[in-house]
Design brief:
51% of the residues lie in helices and 14% in strands. The protein has 496 residues and is α/β, with parallel strands linked by helices. It has four domains: 137 residues, P-loop containing nucleotide triphosphate hydrolases (Rossmann fold); 73 residues, Helicase, Ruva Protein, domain 3, CATH 1.10.8; 164 residues, Rossmann fold, CATH 3.40.50; 75 residues, Helicase, Ruva Protein, domain 3 (Orthogonal Bundle), CATH 1.10.8.60. Strands 9-11-12-13-10-14-15 form a seven-stranded mixed beta sheet, sandwiched between helices. It has a six-stranded mixed beta sheet with strand order 3-2-4-5-1-6, sandwiched between helices. Helix 17 packs across helix 19.
């Protein structure tokens, strides 16, 4: 039972707020909460639906002729009974029905003179007109770990009465399964778990993937976030030793959040990776999710912006809710400056409003969402992002040194089926001073194309020829990179 929400609702009703709107996707949970609340306040509890009409809890028959929403609301206003009325589905009926909205306003005024309230639920949409300002708004948080655990135990007991169920979960695997249910409704969780157990007569670690697959479909349905299957690990990234060490210290927290919480540690917020393009910032986001065993979602800023007023902010809020539903998860925001660039009002202030929403979300979010944000142009980033506390740490990713360049050549040659020991990696590393990791990769790919076209084997000479034909970014944008390094010297932690 969400005690904070229960307390807030009780306070609103005792304060005689005649109309309360609960934002939730779970009407059944809201009804159970209100029933418990009404019992504690010693008030009668009524429920209304279009199928049954207005029914007092504990009474079998509905009040005569109250299936019609208008008649039910008129009855509430006329009865003047101190009570809690849960009107399931009424918010949708009010939309566009001015007469019903007027009667609901009158019933609200009546309820203010007695103990009790009319309670509606919405899924995030707003109430129409004056009702919006009259209503007190409460958000019902998603089910807690304890609620999910209780549900899981109940499902196992129920299915065990019909068939044999083999339970093979370690404590850590059980905790992981429960954590991955976060963001789902109890009904959704019940359907997924029941199907997974009935299919093979077992509850084991493999069922965690069933939950992740379902949540992936939820994200794809929204269309604002991209789900990335992850194959890269931190071992596939050359250098970035400081960043790797920082992440390694937090691995235990991510994998054992319960123990970490008891130890006084919260789930990490995220990191901001600044630096030279092509040096592994985006690759790091993919590697973090693989290393921690978490799903990876990518937020593309271009998916947020809409020509209609208010739609862009709405898209952002829906994207963040989708990310929280997938929690625990890694959220990758590539080229952050493109979403929240400073220096212009050509978008009518939309980017600034989304920036405010993003900063508020980062401060207040409750889901286990680890943000990996990358940026190439520091000058375009709003200063709010660079303040301590927004991210756990800000790292600067510089061009690779000689040893790292050798490793980059080794990784890209080996990944394409060529033995790195056949090449003079030391000479190639010396020849590519000032090259980024992606530029070295392109050297390897270009040499392979040439060798394939000429029906020859790729060798060190072929790679040297591609190096000679390439002008790296450090040469074409030398002043900008020097300025970037100078800015980052005392403001960030070196990732390399």
């Amino acid at each position: 039972m969400p005690q904070d929400t229960l307390h807030d609702l009780g306070l609103l009703i005792r304060s005689r707020h005649g109309l309360v709107n609960i934002e939730t996707h779970e009407d059944d949970r809201a009804e159970g909460l209100l029933r418990h609340l009404a019992d504690g306040l010693r008030l009668p509890f009524f429920t209304w639906s279009r199928v049954r009409g207005l029914v007092r809890d504990g009474m079998g028959d509905p009040i005569y002729d109250t299936k019609d929403a208008l008649k039910a609301v008129r009855h509430i206003g006329a009865a003047r009974i101190p009570a809690v009325y849960f009107m399931r589905g009424l918010s949708g009926a009010v939309e566009g029905n001015e007469l019903l909205a007027e009667y609901l306003r009158e019933a609200t005024v009546t309820m203010k003179s007695v103990d009790g309230a009319v309670v509606l639920t919405t899924d995030g949409s707003e109430l129409p007109g004056a009702l919006r300002t009259m209503a007190a708004h409460v958000t019902l948080p998603g089910p807690s770990d304890e609620e999910f655990r209780s549900l899981l135990n109940q499902i196992v007991r129920d299915i065990s009465q019909r068939q044999t169920v083999e339970v093979d979960l370690s404590r850590e695997e059980s905790d992981t399964l429960i954590r991955n249910l976060s963001g789902l409704t109890l009904m959704e969780a019940e359907k997924i778990l029941t199907k997974a157990i009935v299919e093979d007569g077992a509850l084991n670690a493999g069922d965690i993937q069933h939950v992740i697959d379902h949540k992936k479909k939820v994200v794809e349905r929204e269309g604002l976030l991209e789900y990335y299957p992850v194959e890269t690990s931190l071992a596939d990234i050359a250098d970035l030793a400081t960043l790797k060490a920082w992440l390694a210290k937090r691995t235990a927290v991510v994998r054992n959040p319960g123990d970490a919480d008891r130890f006084g540690l919260d789930f990490p917020k995220g990191v901001l990776l600044l630096g030279v393009p092509g040096c592994g910032k985006s690759l790091s986001a993919k590697a973090v999710s693989a290393e921690w065993g978490l799903p990876l979602l990518k937020l593309d800023p271009s998916n947020l912006y809409n020509k209609y007023i208010g739609e862009s902010e709405g898209n952002f809020k829906r994207a963040m809710k989708a990310a929280e539903r997938m929690a625990p998860v890694v959220l990758w925001i590539d080229e952050l400056e493109k979403a929240f660039a400073t220096g212009g009002s050509e978008d009518g202030g939309v980017s600034q409003r989304i920036l405010g929403s993003f900063l508020s979300w980062m401060q207040d979010r409750t889901g286990e969402v680890f943000v990996v944000a990358t940026a190439n142009d520091i000058s375009r980033l709003p200063p709010e992002f660079l303040r301590k506390g927004r991210f756990d740490e800000i790292f600067f990713v510089d061009l690779p040194d000689g040893i790292t360049r050798q490793k980059v050549f080794e990784i890209h040659l080996a990944s394409r089926g060529h033995d790195p020991e056949r090449f003079d990696l030391l000479a190639l590393a010396e020849a590519t001073s000032g090259f980024s990791g992606s530029e070295i990769e392109e050297v390897v790919v270009s040499a392979l194309y040439t060798a394939f076209a000429e029906e020859t084997e790729i060798d060190t000479g072929a790679l040297h020829r591609e190096v000679a034909a390439t002008r790296p970014l450090s040469s074409t944008m030398a002043e900008k990179i020097a300025g970037m390094r100078e800015w980052a010297r005392d403001r960030t932690v070196r990732a390399n």
